[in-house]
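Here is one chain, start to finish.
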Amino acid sequence: MLPLVLAFSALFLFLLSQQIAYYVTKSNFYHEAEERYQLDHLLENAVLHLQSHVRKEGSFEEELSLSFPSGTILYKVVEQSDGVIVVNITCQTQRGSKLTNTAHVQLNDGQVIQWID
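Its structure:
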């Protein structure tokens, strides 16, 4: 009788550990997906802000930082020549996830002519 109880206990503990591992993996995936969604949303806001600012002003500051409830956006102009600026856009969420992209933007109409991930 004792070996049967030990076998069922071991089986129960094995199944319990498998379910816990599955739950943790699933939970981590959803947190990472949420972070990625927030980064994509921040990046979309960053590009729209960059384009509208360039259209209105015809230029862009050397460095600019914007804060939102979900994170911050940092713009840094790395090159400017012949009516085109090269801007590094860094988005960071409140939890610390970062995404950096580079945009080549025409100064006369604010269009992004090249995008580098």
